[in-house]
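Quarterly update from the structural biology core.
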Amino acid sequence: MKNPITTTKSFRAVVMPMAMVLLAVCISHLPVAAEPQAGIAPEQQRLELMKSKGPDASLTILPVRLGGKPWDRVTEVVGVLLEQQGLRNIELGQTPFTPADTNWESLAAAVGAFVKTNPITTSYALYAEYNGDHKTGLNELRAVVVDQTGAVVWTDRLTMQDEALKKIEDRDPMTLSVLLAERLSPQLGLNEETAKAAKPGKLAALMDQRSGLPPENERAALPERQQAMKRALPGATLLVYPARIGGSEVSVPSATNIVRLLNQAGLCKAVPAEQPVLLKTSLADPNELKAL
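Predicted structure, tokenized:
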């Protein structure tokens, strides 16, 4: 497949800074919207109109349902992947759509009815769900795009009978999100050229914030600081604080052991801190780096 989207092996890897993998090249031209053609089915007309808008189409991504429950982090990942492909105007829906039943045949109409009663500010809305069970894992991908009036524009469903899903060895939220973005991007008029012209947007900034890393301008100075520390370390004194355990306790023996190992290695003069420091950072966020 042309323009493959780079995958990672875990969902956590996705929330690391996206800015490092996004290209910042100004877009040179914009596609001209095409008028609907006579003799073409209404849904196909709507799809062609959406394609013609290309990167300028605006899309609300309704909360993606994973195993029957809405997951905002998965929704964000889908948004980032589409942003990487060049889509500029993306909003994250806050109100989850809950299907009344699991019938695929009625899903598109139900999404359209939902958008009618829960208006969106964008031209289009995407609803997606990743289904499965504990025995087989994720085994189905469903996606529906409707326009602002609730009219169906595009639908897609993959099961284990489809080669596109079957060939994925690790079917997790990340790989299914990548697959969804790969299949939806052409329908949005996105291609290799739009991906090359893509700039990091607000969703890339959100992922960068979620990563827990310092801002990019601070990270840029790290190599120089690390080299300075490396040069100074042999004659420096390193103060070692006890490690935090379980969020509410510190381990003094951990500091003592680290001090011993550093001094044995001759890296520097290590000494244990006289008074421990217990950080009060919340552990509610699953991102350990952000908590640190």
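Residues 104-117 form the longest helix (14 residues).
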